[in-house]
Design goal:
With 108 residues, the protein is an all-alpha fold. It is built from 6 helices and no strands. The chain is globular. The two termini are 22 Å apart.
Amino acid sequence: MRAHLAWALGDRDDALTAAEAALTLPPTNYTSTEAYSAPSLVGALASAEPRDPAERRRAATLIKRGLPALARYALVFPIARPRPALVRGLVAAPRDPARAASALARCS
């Protein structure tokens, strides 16, 4: 939750740091969905408009580690199933709007 809030408030560094910390959290129940989706979601948002090469690397690492974990989490907790598609759509959007639209259509 901290990563999402920090991103919404424009504190990119705190958002990325909180998302990196969330990678170490074990899923406990369906209420962990927000925390479990934070790494890949904040990574996708940061990768869309990175400020510098270091931020681009941090964002890529969050997506690389967070998206597979989120996909596994969604297998156990179906409430999270739209989240991996949302992240894939956000990652694809800057490069391939058609692919992003297809991924986002699977979010509903």
